[in-house]
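FW: tagging you since you asked about this chain on Friday. Here's the raw sequence from the shared folder, copied in full. Didn't touch anything.
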Amino acid sequence: MNREDDNVPPTPTPAPQSPTGPSPNPNMGQAYPPPPVPPEGPAAKQRRRGPRPVPPGVPYHRVLSREKRMIWRGIAALVLLMGGMLVFNIALSLLGAFIDLALGRSSFLLGGDEFTPVSQATMLLSLALLLPWSMLVQRWLYGVKGSSLHSVRSLFRYEVFGRALLVILPIWTIYLGIFSLFGGSQEVPWRFTDLIGMFVVVILFAPMQSAAEEYSFRGLAFRVAASWGQGPRVALGLGVVVSSLLFMAAHATLDPWLNLYYFTMGVALSLITWRTGGLEIAVVIHAVNNVIAFLFPVVTHSDFTEGMERSVGTGSAIMLVPCVLLAVITAVVWLRTRKVGPLRTEEDPVRAPVFEQG
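HL: got it, structure written out here
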């Protein structure tokens, strides 16, 4: 037998023929094995790394929305938000109280009669921690990067912030100056060092505290509640109402006039955030309000704790004044954005400005 025949490749077996021609399935012949089937199961799925991308073409409050509403995940996010606020407040307030105690001060936080710059600083910083906390909760539970809380562009738009500050600062200063005339605050003795210390603390930390509350309530809470609604109107309504109720509850007052004011402020700033596609104007309004309100007792040498009173009867119908002012500002923002509508993710900020020029 010729051994060279062993090196000759075998003749392939032809594919079976149908009566009308070649078989429609060319892989039926044994000489033509079927192509490999892609693996199925966990091995076929590559694990996604990094944050989930921000969905394109959606308004600010719909960034966390998906086909499934994930209500329980949203409840967990809100519980973490409010729980974090409580834990931070208790921990840092106690820290401030013990620092005052070590300095020989009778701390207001421990039942004493002195509200010191240290107490104010730790209280403001405890709320300022809500900003990174809100970003962390969103990233952890929804996989969306925390920087998306800034705006639809996932960055803080300083040009929007600056224009709003130039408009809001003089208006709010005049309003609070007139509003304070009806307060009837009486002058109390202050230490000179406390006046300087309180001024520095307010200037440095009050804007941080105000911004953190906006990132918490008009940012995270607004988005979480809006993700429960499937239609655009339902989503907006849920986001506005739930975030505003949480903002009102966070101030822990039973006075109806104060609750009306806090709820109105929540609604107004939520709508402004929705229309402008970011938190910048809401931060300006909140920060200007708090800084001026905190500085007023320092300038007038009045009792600082009067502005922290939340008992029933503290408020009155005069609280309708800031409510009307907030409504007017919201209406102005709405009219100024009427041609572009609420800004959406991945839109050109130059062609779709927050405020029209001229």
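FW: The longest helix spans residues 192-226.
HL: agreed, and DSSP finds nine helices and two strands in the chain.
FW: great, closing this out.
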